[in-house]
Input
Amino acid sequence: MQKYLIKSISIVNEGKITVADVLIENQRIKKIGSNIQPSSNVTEINGEKKFLLPGAIDDQVHFREPGLTHKASIYTESKAAVAGGVTSFMEMPNTVPPAFTQELLEAKYQIASRSSLANYSFFMGTSNENSDEVLKTNDRKKEICGIKIFMGSSTGNLLVDNHLTLDKLFRESEVLIATHCEDEKIIKRNIEKRKQEKGTLTPEDHPIIRDEEACFESSLTAIQFAKKHNSRLHILHLSTEKEMQLFTNLIPLAEKRITAEVCVHHLHFTSDDYAKLGNRIKCNPAIKAPHNREALWTALLDDRLDVIATDHAPHLLEEKGFYRDKNGFLVSLDGEKGSYEKAHAGLPLVQHPLLTMLYYVKVGKITIEKVVEKMSHAVATCFNIADRGFIREGYFADLVVVDTEQITSVGQNNIFYKCGWSPFEAALPGEKGFNFPAVITHTFVNGQLVYGNGVVDESNRGQRLLFNR
Output
């Protein structure tokens, strides 16, 4: 197994930046110190003027396997992940078939063991009818990241709206419960009202249909169940100012029983962007009015929001209502921006979350130390992940080297997603692709260089995440 020595690099870890050498050996960080001398068979990397970060851990992705591999697979999306500095992921159960049984859940682990370039874990899926099967996960709490409850029907038949089922799951689950919170009745009411008001719906209607009230009422319900039973609750992709009053920064993260996630697209886009991007940024929960984004940033920086994730949810361009012309630009299949009601919800992001946050470091919105805290340290703490998420001797060498003196311009030539597009690319005439003020030069997974200077090494596989519970 290859050994590496990264020399004179600025290490961002646990709130500090220190210049040191890092020796990687036998999958782990062997030594951190000054003037480490290379032994035999060591590959040396010059880290001067670069940053070393712990690999990002994305606690919410949709990699579409099994059943939806026309748009993504564990292999293709994990490849995109490592190119973006994401070394571990936790994948959601809304595949075909959904991960509603322990056997179907384990089948996904077997696929990942053969094909994933990043480390992996998978959520157990819930429905109104499978609570007994879900609760078998209690016996696997050291090897399963958690159970996922869709409290809004974002996808398929995974909606759990039976309060007796919800009460049982919150009462008896010994593992983390992750929730998608949107109130289905409010959404349906808003759809009918909006159709009566204007007839044909457009992407700009999405945040009006899936509005602040729908998110708040569902999040409040989940929190009430969690407080009733002292459950370990993690609410995904918060998107509204109103929801921020439900969370606290007065308790250390390791002691919180209720934690909160924000996603990069809710920190970056607002409803003003529908005019240009249309269905490309249609997702659930919806990207909403600008005041919500500002409230999310405030809550992230004051620690009411605990982790940053992507909710990476790739769809083909055709499923978004577009196709590419001979010049590579997008052309609508149905109307100016594509048919809103037919367009699938979700956008591909797992290759670009770290670069997105480094853009906000550049403009002074957040520090690089805080980015590392929210994308690595806090995720490891929140989920009790064993030996990952920090740059510590003895920990797995899941590491990312970043050069903040170069630029990454997003284009078709460097997008690894199987769906082949990104909301950050120049996709319409007159648009400019987003230029991130950093380049990810190296990504290590379990001590092996899986991505270096634009090239992916596909000879290694990631490992199953384990949890200290």
About this structure: Residues 160 and 166 are 7 Å apart (CA to CA).
